[in-house]
Amino acid sequence: MTAPLKIQHLRQFLLAADHGSFRLAAEGTHRSQAAVSAAMQDLEQQLGAPLFEAGKRAQLTPLGQAVAPLLRELLATHDRVLDAARQLGMGHTGPVSLAVMPSLADEWLPRLLERYARSHPDIRIRAVDESSQDVHRLVLNGEVQVGVAGQVPRTAEVAFTPVARDAFGLVCRKGHPLARRRGAVPWSSLASERLIGNATFDTLRNRQLGSGIDDPAMVVSNRASLLASVVSGLGVTVLPVLARPAADSGLAFVPLCEPTVERIVGVLTRKEETLLPSVAAMHALALRSLTQFTRRKGADLV
Predict the structure, then answer these.
(1) What per-residue confidence (pLDDT) applies to 125?
(2) In this structure, how many other beta carbons lie within 10 angstroms of the beta carbon of residue 20?
(3) 3-state secondary structure 73-103
Protein backbone atom coordinates (compact mmCIF):
# COMPACT_ATOMS: atom_id res chain seq x y z
CA MET A 1 0.00 0.00 0.00
CA THR A 2 1.37 3.41 -0.97
CA ALA A 3 2.31 5.57 2.01
CA PRO A 4 0.23 8.74 2.27
CA LEU A 5 1.81 12.06 1.44
CA LYS A 6 2.80 14.08 4.48
CA ILE A 7 1.16 17.48 4.76
CA GLN A 8 4.35 19.01 6.13
CA HIS A 9 6.26 17.80 3.08
CA LEU A 10 3.69 19.36 0.75
CA ARG A 11 3.91 22.65 2.59
CA GLN A 12 7.72 22.63 2.37
CA PHE A 13 7.67 21.72 -1.32
CA LEU A 14 5.33 24.59 -2.20
CA LEU A 15 7.31 27.10 -0.13
CA ALA A 16 10.52 26.02 -1.85
CA ALA A 17 8.83 26.19 -5.26
CA ASP A 18 7.27 29.61 -4.62
CA HIS A 19 10.43 31.22 -3.18
CA GLY A 20 13.09 29.21 -5.02
CA SER A 21 14.80 28.51 -1.72
CA PHE A 22 15.07 25.53 0.63
CA ARG A 23 16.23 27.94 3.33
CA LEU A 24 12.99 29.93 3.20
CA ALA A 25 11.00 26.68 3.13
CA ALA A 26 12.84 25.60 6.28
CA GLU A 27 12.18 28.93 8.01
CA GLY A 28 8.54 28.89 6.98
CA THR A 29 7.97 25.48 8.56
CA HIS A 30 10.35 25.87 11.52
CA ARG A 31 12.63 23.08 10.40
CA SER A 32 16.32 22.89 9.52
CA GLN A 33 17.39 23.16 5.89
CA ALA A 34 18.80 19.62 6.11
CA ALA A 35 15.40 18.34 7.29
CA VAL A 36 13.67 20.03 4.35
CA SER A 37 16.17 18.54 1.89
CA ALA A 38 15.52 15.07 3.35
CA ALA A 39 11.76 15.64 3.16
CA MET A 40 12.02 16.58 -0.53
CA GLN A 41 13.96 13.41 -1.22
CA ASP A 42 11.20 11.39 0.48
CA LEU A 43 8.56 13.19 -1.59
CA GLU A 44 10.50 12.50 -4.82
CA GLN A 45 10.71 8.81 -3.91
CA GLN A 46 6.95 8.69 -3.32
CA LEU A 47 6.20 10.35 -6.65
CA GLY A 48 8.82 8.35 -8.54
CA ALA A 49 10.96 11.09 -10.13
CA PRO A 50 12.94 14.25 -9.26
CA LEU A 51 11.02 17.41 -8.43
CA PHE A 52 14.03 19.74 -8.36
CA GLU A 53 16.84 20.09 -10.89
CA ALA A 54 20.10 18.52 -9.67
CA GLY A 55 22.64 21.10 -8.50
CA LYS A 56 20.21 24.00 -8.94
CA ARG A 57 18.72 23.82 -5.47
CA ALA A 58 15.04 24.81 -5.59
CA GLN A 59 14.52 24.99 -9.36
CA LEU A 60 11.61 22.77 -10.35
CA THR A 61 11.87 19.99 -12.93
CA PRO A 62 9.04 19.64 -15.47
CA LEU A 63 7.47 17.07 -13.10
CA GLY A 64 7.77 19.51 -10.22
CA GLN A 65 6.05 22.19 -12.31
CA ALA A 66 3.29 19.73 -13.28
CA VAL A 67 2.54 18.47 -9.77
CA ALA A 68 2.79 21.84 -8.01
CA PRO A 69 -0.82 22.92 -8.76
CA LEU A 70 -2.09 19.45 -7.81
CA LEU A 71 -0.26 19.48 -4.49
CA ARG A 72 -1.38 23.07 -3.88
CA GLU A 73 -4.98 21.99 -4.38
CA LEU A 74 -4.49 19.02 -2.04
CA LEU A 75 -2.94 21.21 0.66
CA ALA A 76 -5.69 23.83 0.35
CA THR A 77 -8.34 21.10 0.69
CA HIS A 78 -6.59 19.71 3.76
CA ASP A 79 -6.36 23.13 5.40
CA ARG A 80 -9.99 23.95 4.59
CA VAL A 81 -11.28 20.64 5.98
CA LEU A 82 -9.09 20.86 9.07
CA ASP A 83 -10.30 24.39 9.78
CA ALA A 84 -13.94 23.35 9.32
CA ALA A 85 -13.47 20.42 11.71
CA ARG A 86 -11.81 22.64 14.29
CA GLN A 87 -14.59 25.22 14.03
CA LEU A 88 -17.11 22.44 14.72
CA GLY A 89 -15.01 21.14 17.61
CA MET A 90 -14.76 24.59 19.20
CA GLY A 91 -18.50 25.18 18.82
CA HIS A 92 -18.05 28.10 16.42
CA THR A 93 -20.07 26.41 13.66
CA GLY A 94 -22.68 23.67 13.42
CA PRO A 95 -26.47 23.49 13.36
CA VAL A 96 -28.55 24.04 16.50
CA SER A 97 -32.25 23.20 16.70
CA LEU A 98 -34.56 23.64 19.66
CA ALA A 99 -38.23 23.40 20.49
CA VAL A 100 -39.93 25.52 23.16
CA MET A 101 -43.40 25.36 24.64
CA PRO A 102 -45.66 28.25 23.54
CA SER A 103 -45.80 30.03 26.91
CA LEU A 104 -42.06 30.73 26.66
CA ALA A 105 -41.89 31.38 22.93
CA ASP A 106 -43.10 34.97 22.99
CA GLU A 107 -40.94 36.54 25.71
CA TRP A 108 -38.14 34.21 26.81
CA LEU A 109 -37.17 32.58 23.50
CA PRO A 110 -36.23 35.77 21.57
CA ARG A 111 -33.93 36.83 24.41
CA LEU A 112 -32.28 33.41 24.44
CA LEU A 113 -31.71 33.47 20.68
CA GLU A 114 -30.33 37.01 20.79
CA ARG A 115 -27.80 36.10 23.50
CA TYR A 116 -26.74 32.94 21.71
CA ALA A 117 -26.45 34.57 18.28
CA ARG A 118 -24.33 37.36 19.73
CA SER A 119 -21.71 34.90 21.00
CA HIS A 120 -22.11 32.38 18.14
CA PRO A 121 -22.65 34.50 15.00
CA ASP A 122 -21.84 31.67 12.54
CA ILE A 123 -24.23 29.09 13.97
CA ARG A 124 -27.36 28.19 12.00
CA ILE A 125 -30.30 28.10 14.43
CA ARG A 126 -33.75 26.59 13.96
CA ALA A 127 -36.36 27.23 16.67
CA VAL A 128 -39.99 26.08 16.84
CA ASP A 129 -42.71 26.39 19.48
CA GLU A 130 -44.74 23.29 20.20
CA SER A 131 -46.79 21.83 23.05
CA SER A 132 -44.82 20.18 25.83
CA GLN A 133 -45.85 16.74 24.56
CA ASP A 134 -44.59 17.58 21.09
CA VAL A 135 -41.35 19.08 22.43
CA HIS A 136 -40.63 15.76 24.16
CA ARG A 137 -41.46 13.88 20.97
CA LEU A 138 -39.20 16.07 18.83
CA VAL A 139 -36.28 15.60 21.23
CA LEU A 140 -36.91 11.87 21.48
CA ASN A 141 -36.98 11.46 17.68
CA GLY A 142 -33.86 13.57 17.21
CA GLU A 143 -35.73 16.23 15.21
CA VAL A 144 -34.45 18.89 17.60
CA GLN A 145 -31.41 18.76 19.87
CA VAL A 146 -32.67 20.82 22.81
CA GLY A 147 -36.17 21.21 24.20
CA VAL A 148 -37.71 23.46 26.85
CA ALA A 149 -41.04 22.25 28.14
CA GLY A 150 -43.18 21.20 31.03
CA GLN A 151 -42.47 17.78 32.45
CA VAL A 152 -44.45 14.90 30.98
CA PRO A 153 -44.18 11.17 31.77
CA ARG A 154 -40.48 10.42 31.43
CA THR A 155 -38.92 8.14 28.87
CA ALA A 156 -35.61 6.37 29.24
CA GLU A 157 -34.17 8.10 26.18
CA VAL A 158 -34.80 11.73 27.23
CA ALA A 159 -32.89 13.60 29.93
CA PHE A 160 -34.97 16.26 31.72
CA THR A 161 -33.27 18.92 33.86
CA PRO A 162 -35.91 20.66 35.99
CA VAL A 163 -35.55 24.41 36.48
CA ALA A 164 -38.83 26.06 37.50
CA ARG A 165 -41.89 25.22 39.56
CA ASP A 166 -44.53 27.12 37.63
CA ALA A 167 -47.92 27.87 39.19
CA PHE A 168 -50.97 29.26 37.41
CA GLY A 169 -52.90 32.49 37.72
CA LEU A 170 -55.82 34.42 36.32
CA VAL A 171 -55.02 37.08 33.72
CA CYS A 172 -57.62 39.84 33.54
CA ARG A 173 -57.91 43.59 33.17
CA LYS A 174 -56.68 45.55 36.18
CA GLY A 175 -60.18 46.87 36.85
CA HIS A 176 -61.68 43.37 37.08
CA PRO A 177 -63.29 42.57 40.46
CA LEU A 178 -61.02 39.54 40.99
CA ALA A 179 -57.96 41.72 40.39
CA ARG A 180 -58.97 43.96 43.29
CA ARG A 181 -58.91 41.11 45.77
CA ARG A 182 -55.82 40.67 47.90
CA GLY A 183 -53.95 37.40 47.43
CA ALA A 184 -54.90 34.28 45.53
CA VAL A 185 -58.41 33.40 44.40
CA PRO A 186 -59.90 29.90 44.13
CA TRP A 187 -60.38 28.20 40.79
CA SER A 188 -64.11 28.08 41.53
CA SER A 189 -64.23 31.87 41.16
CA LEU A 190 -63.74 31.39 37.40
CA ALA A 191 -67.11 29.62 37.04
CA SER A 192 -68.93 32.80 36.04
CA GLU A 193 -66.15 34.18 33.83
CA ARG A 194 -65.86 33.99 30.06
CA LEU A 195 -62.61 32.07 29.70
CA ILE A 196 -60.33 32.36 26.69
CA GLY A 197 -58.38 29.14 26.29
CA ASN A 198 -54.76 28.83 25.21
CA ALA A 199 -52.12 26.13 24.76
CA THR A 200 -51.50 25.77 28.50
CA PHE A 201 -55.09 24.62 29.01
CA ASP A 202 -53.96 21.19 27.80
CA THR A 203 -52.09 20.90 31.12
CA LEU A 204 -55.18 21.88 33.12
CA ARG A 205 -57.89 19.76 31.54
CA ASN A 206 -59.51 16.87 33.42
CA ARG A 207 -58.37 18.16 36.82
CA GLN A 208 -61.87 19.16 37.97
CA LEU A 209 -61.02 22.84 37.69
CA GLY A 210 -64.29 23.78 36.03
CA SER A 211 -66.09 23.46 32.71
CA GLY A 212 -64.55 26.71 31.49
CA ILE A 213 -61.11 25.09 31.63
CA ASP A 214 -62.19 21.86 30.00
CA ASP A 215 -64.27 23.57 27.31
CA PRO A 216 -63.49 27.32 27.05
CA ALA A 217 -65.73 29.68 25.10
CA MET A 218 -62.86 30.77 22.88
CA VAL A 219 -59.32 29.55 22.18
CA VAL A 220 -56.46 31.83 21.11
CA SER A 221 -53.11 30.08 20.75
CA ASN A 222 -50.86 33.07 20.05
CA ARG A 223 -49.83 34.77 23.32
CA ALA A 224 -49.80 38.31 21.93
CA SER A 225 -53.27 37.86 20.44
CA LEU A 226 -54.45 36.19 23.65
CA LEU A 227 -53.38 39.14 25.81
CA ALA A 228 -54.84 41.61 23.32
CA SER A 229 -58.15 39.74 23.55
CA VAL A 230 -58.15 40.08 27.33
CA VAL A 231 -57.25 43.78 27.11
CA SER A 232 -60.16 44.35 24.72
CA GLY A 233 -62.58 42.77 27.18
CA LEU A 234 -63.40 39.55 25.33
CA GLY A 235 -62.80 37.55 28.50
CA VAL A 236 -60.15 36.40 30.94
CA THR A 237 -57.58 33.65 30.67
CA VAL A 238 -55.25 31.50 32.75
CA LEU A 239 -51.49 31.48 32.30
CA PRO A 240 -48.51 30.14 34.23
CA VAL A 241 -46.28 32.53 36.16
CA LEU A 242 -43.57 32.29 33.49
CA ALA A 243 -46.01 33.65 30.91
CA ARG A 244 -47.56 36.38 33.07
CA PRO A 245 -48.00 39.70 31.24
CA ALA A 246 -45.68 42.64 31.82
CA ALA A 247 -46.58 45.22 34.45
CA ASP A 248 -47.26 47.88 31.83
CA SER A 249 -49.63 45.69 29.80
CA GLY A 250 -52.77 46.95 31.57
CA LEU A 251 -53.44 43.42 32.80
CA ALA A 252 -53.37 41.86 36.25
CA PHE A 253 -52.05 38.43 37.22
CA VAL A 254 -53.95 36.87 40.13
CA PRO A 255 -52.60 33.59 41.60
CA LEU A 256 -55.07 30.72 41.64
CA CYS A 257 -55.48 28.34 44.57
CA GLU A 258 -57.75 25.63 45.99
CA PRO A 259 -56.20 23.62 44.55
CA THR A 260 -52.68 24.88 43.84
CA VAL A 261 -51.77 23.64 40.39
CA GLU A 262 -48.14 23.61 39.32
CA ARG A 263 -46.02 22.27 36.51
CA ILE A 264 -42.30 21.59 36.43
CA VAL A 265 -40.50 23.30 33.53
CA GLY A 266 -37.06 22.24 32.40
CA VAL A 267 -34.61 21.61 29.59
CA LEU A 268 -34.50 18.37 27.59
CA THR A 269 -31.90 16.53 25.55
CA ARG A 270 -31.49 12.97 24.39
CA LYS A 271 -30.02 10.89 27.19
CA GLU A 272 -26.54 9.35 26.89
CA GLU A 273 -25.83 11.24 23.68
CA THR A 274 -22.87 13.61 23.49
CA LEU A 275 -23.96 17.00 22.22
CA LEU A 276 -22.18 18.92 19.48
CA PRO A 277 -20.17 21.71 21.13
CA SER A 278 -22.47 24.30 19.54
CA VAL A 279 -25.50 22.46 20.95
CA ALA A 280 -23.86 22.03 24.36
CA ALA A 281 -23.38 25.80 24.46
CA MET A 282 -27.08 26.34 23.67
CA HIS A 283 -28.08 23.78 26.33
CA ALA A 284 -25.96 25.51 28.98
CA LEU A 285 -27.25 28.95 28.00
CA ALA A 286 -30.87 27.74 28.05
CA LEU A 287 -30.42 26.48 31.62
CA ARG A 288 -28.84 29.75 32.78
CA SER A 289 -31.29 31.94 30.92
CA LEU A 290 -34.35 30.00 32.12
CA THR A 291 -33.10 30.20 35.70
CA GLN A 292 -32.71 33.99 35.41
CA PHE A 293 -36.10 34.34 33.72
CA THR A 294 -37.75 32.26 36.46
CA ARG A 295 -36.40 34.58 39.15
CA ARG A 296 -37.45 37.67 37.22
CA LYS A 297 -41.00 36.40 36.71
CA GLY A 298 -41.39 35.41 40.36
CA ALA A 299 -41.74 31.65 39.87
CA ASP A 300 -40.00 29.18 42.17
CA LEU A 301 -36.79 27.41 41.24
CA VAL A 302 -36.76 23.65 41.63
Answers:
(1) 96
(2) 13
(3) HHHHHHHHHHHHHHHHHCCCCCEEEEEECHH
* Digit-coded pLDDT (tens) for 123-171: 999 999 998 999 999 999 999 999 999 988 778 899 999 999 999 999 9
pTM for the whole thing? 0.86
Contact between residue 10 and residue 74 where contact means Cβ atoms under 8 Å apart: yes
Low-confidence ranges of the chain (pLDDT < 70): 1
Q: Which domains does the chain possess?
A: 7-90 (1.10.10.10), 95-163+265-301 (3.40.190.10), 165-262 (3.40.190.10)
The region that residue 210 occupies, defined by phi over 0 for left and psi between -120 and 50 for alpha, beta otherwise, is left
pLDDT, one tens digit per residue, over 69-88 is: 999 999 999 999 999 999 99
